[in-house]
Amino acid sequence: MLLEANPDTADLREKVSRAWQEFARALADVLAELPADAYLDLTLDPTASGTGDASYTVSVTVADDGSLAARAVGNGSLPESFRLNRAAIADLVALGWSPPGVEPGSGDQFGITTPIAEAPRLATVLCRTMRDIYGAPHPAFLVYWSHDAAQQPLSIAPLGSARAALFPGAPPTNPATAPIPDGPELHDAMLLREQVHEVVAAMQRTTPDQLIADGDGDIGIRAGTAMVFVKVRDNPPLVDVFSPILTEIKPSEQLYGRLSELTNRMPVGRLYCANETVWASVPVFGRNFQPSHLVLAVQVMTGLADELDDRLQGEFGGRRFFAEDDHPTRDSEHFSTGMYL
């Protein structure tokens, strides 16, 4: 199967695994050195992960007795469409989290209290929570900051490829309302776009000015009956390689289960359903941009999209991007095509 046999995915899998290992080691060191009354917050950046208003966060503080008290967000603090299902809740408990309200002061959050000597084990639990339960595809999608009880920032060692908050307590910036970058930031954004266009043009054996792009500047690449897009995001610097696998699809528990199963077999990226469309997305990090990473992501996505649109269309119906005779899963006078173009 493509997900298992393609050597490109194996290379990506190794890189992602190594990044998580480095993050876990750095996190364990920081937890072991947290001073009394200090806090450390880790949040999945919604602007990079597509989780909207949902704030998937874990927080650790040093209790009065010197133990580490960790909290993980529960459904009481999540928008309805982003709440954890029963399987995810069971997985949290299996990792060692107590259900909301069990740990003193945990409220609607999951809780763990452990001796500071167990910092490496707690770091592993936090990593698996962010990665396996909350869906962080890579540590670079995590934002962290440490502070005291008065919300004053504390200096800690870097946590691998995770990103320090831009300013204390600030949620990740929303690109839709963020100011236009200026100075070095503008230069970096322009440079990233130029690099991405050069890489994709070389893969297509053409020149950057001959690339097919839509009104938003997203580059389109046909892959059989599927379409793959390459989108450059400025804040945070990110290249999203994505595809609308199927449109006019009727969401169902069986569909969500299938997408979850397939996502778990991907080395990086995810499959999800939104607005009657099944999407596939593989991110490439814009900071310290590596052209080889984008090449791998495009190669993986073009093969993946062309394989999965046929397979999932046979299982769940819907329309493939370039298959006009596909039949939608339900009749509707006002359905949304879900197409990107």
Automatic annotation (TrEMBL):
<dbReference type="Pfam" id="PF22552">
    <property type="entry name" value="TY-Chap3"/>
</dbReference>
<protein>
    <recommendedName>
        <fullName>YbjN domain-containing protein</fullName>
    </recommendedName>
</protein>
<dbReference type="InterPro" id="IPR054343">
    <property type="entry name" value="TY-Chap_M"/>
</dbReference>
<dbReference type="Pfam" id="PF22551">
    <property type="entry name" value="TY-Chap1"/>
</dbReference>
<feature type="domain" description="TY-Chap N-terminal">
    <location>
        <begin position="18"/>
        <end position="142"/>
    </location>
</feature>
<dbReference type="InterPro" id="IPR054344">
    <property type="entry name" value="TY-Chap_N"/>
</dbReference>
<feature type="domain" description="TY-Chap central">
    <location>
        <begin position="192"/>
        <end position="323"/>
    </location>
</feature>
